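Quiz preparation item.
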């Protein structure tokens, strides 16, 4: 799509009447609530799925690489925000031994030929939380902030040609379009700085849609402990840092900067404007969840058509999902009536070092939801503000974070007690769905080892950079050296290994 064609499409999208769009979404929501009450969105069993985002690098230099659109189509991946991004989605499968194995095999089956095809063009796909080496001959600041004005429309130079991405920079909604993290400064004209980050997003379809609020409440309360194990983004591209001593940057680094990037780019800087990217509140009912989605401000209302899919009957509500950026969120969709589902998407986790690590999080998340709900675990009574504090503490400090949990014996902050119980309930939940004890423990093991060793991908990165800086290496060189080592380690383990293989 040419710049003029893209600008015309953005202009057309901005002409949609927001009030009329909202009225249609509200009407669809009432229909949706009726369908939920009638059981249309119930499943005979729990169903799991996963989204996996990657970024591309030059196979010879490790520098960020734009992926040619024809190549992206040939490997069957979906485009994401930046020209360097690619996304995979697994087919939803039942939560059982065969379903989890199918999830892992599908990722392997798609990623292996994709890597072979991209390598023929000297491109490697990387699973990571944040890239740090900009394209050759460019700075990260240039790459993230480059834009042009075409026919009165601001267009990000390095963004995919999806209309909604560009429309966000041309609306009245006051997104920050900046980075707000310790010792980092960047302001942009588009949402392109968000393309720094990549994630995995496991999701679980709940068997009985009206029970979604109960599952959701537990998802909020396990968010901090899960994020603490998954942190993988302690460093930005070096040229984004302020002119401060290297030691200051190391002392102030958070273990998971992905959270702050998403929030500072898309939330309004005006504190009187409700946050769109945030740790969400509990829901009293499934109707409240639907109302929350509909009430959320739509940054880019667009003309949506009602096609032949079942969920086209609530197409405006589905569109609103696209900017309902909660770290854990409810989703309602389904191509056919029989596929209609209510699910919980778990969105805080950064990209992980290997496929097996990603599947471990998927299995543990799903197993926990099953067991905690079924056993009516007392952590449900953990105060929401404490759950929120757990989440942001985990963002900053990973497994060194102050976390609060509730057991049958009361409140605890002991890390071994927290994770001992968490892993036991993940095992229990998986066994409730037919996995053997041995199989359940095999899925859990990569994360249990992280806790036992007190090591996360972020801490691995941080330790590498700190050692090099202490040896007198400039911070930028240390970060790029770490990134090169990360990519080399991943090369041997991405498809058939896990992060703990890096530690031997």
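Solution:
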């Amino acid at each position: 799509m040419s710049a003029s064609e893209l600008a015309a499409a953005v202009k057309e999208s901005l002409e949609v009447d927001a009030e009329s769009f909202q009225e249609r979404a509200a009407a669809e929501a009432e229909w949706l609530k009726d369908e939920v009450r009638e059981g249309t969105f119930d499943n005979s069993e729990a169903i799991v799925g996963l989204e996996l985002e990657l970024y591309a690098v030059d196979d010879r230099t490790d520098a960020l690489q734009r992926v040619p659109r024809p190549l992206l189509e040939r490997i069957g991946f979906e485009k994401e925000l930046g020209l360097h991004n690619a996304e995979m989605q697994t087919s939803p499968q039942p939560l059982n031994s065969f379903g989890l194995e199918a999830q892992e095999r599908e990722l392997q089956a798609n990623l292996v030929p994709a890597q072979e095809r991209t390598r023929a063009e000297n491109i490697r796909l990387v699973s990571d939380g944040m890239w740090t080496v900009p394209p050759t001959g460019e700075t990260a600041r240039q790459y993230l902030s480059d834009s042009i004005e075409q026919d009165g429309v601001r267009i990000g130079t390095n963004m995919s040609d999806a209309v909604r991405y560009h429309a966000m920079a041309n609306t009245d909604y006051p997104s920050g379009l900046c980075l707000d993290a310790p010792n980092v400064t960047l302001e942009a004209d588009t949402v392109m700085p968000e393309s720094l980050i990549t994630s995995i997003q496991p999701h679980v379809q709940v068997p009985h849609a009206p029970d979604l609020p109960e599952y959701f409440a537990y998802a909020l309360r396990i968010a901090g402990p899960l994020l603490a194990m998954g942190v993988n983004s302690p460093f930005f591209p070096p040229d984004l840092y302020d002119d401060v001593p290297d030691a200051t940057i190391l002392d102030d680094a958070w273990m998971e900067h992905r959270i702050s990037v998403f929030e500072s780019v898309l939330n309004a800087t005006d504190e009187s404007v409700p946050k769109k990217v945030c740790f969400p509140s509990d829901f009293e009912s499934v109707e409240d969840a639907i109302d929350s989605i509909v009430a959320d401000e739509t940054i880019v209302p667009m003309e949506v058509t009602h096609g032949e899919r079942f969920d086209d009957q609530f197409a405006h509500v589905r569109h609103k999902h696209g900017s309902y950026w909660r770290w854990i969120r409810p989703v309602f969709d389904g191509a056919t009536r029989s596929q209609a589902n209510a699910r919980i998407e778990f969105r805080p986790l950064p990209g992980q070092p290997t496929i097996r690590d990603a599947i471990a999080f998927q299995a543990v998340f799903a197993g926990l939801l099953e067991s905690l709900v079924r056993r009516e675990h007392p952590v449900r009574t953990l105060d929401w503000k404490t759950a929120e504090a757990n989440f942001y503490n985990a963002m900053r400090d990973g497994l060194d974070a102050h976390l609060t949990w509730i057991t049958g014996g009361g409140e605890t902050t002991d890390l071994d007690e927290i994770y001992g119980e968490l892993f036991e309930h993940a095992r229990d939940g998986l066994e409730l769905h037919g996995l053997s004890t041995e199989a359940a423990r095999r899925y859990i093991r990569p994360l249990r080892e992280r806790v036992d060793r007190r090591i996360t991908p972020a801490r691995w990165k941080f330790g590498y950079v700190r050692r090099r800086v202490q040896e007198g290496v400039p911070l930028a060189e240390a970060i790029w050296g770490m990134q090169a080592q990360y990519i080399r380690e991943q090369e041997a383990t991405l498809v058939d290994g896990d992060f703990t293989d890096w530690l031997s």
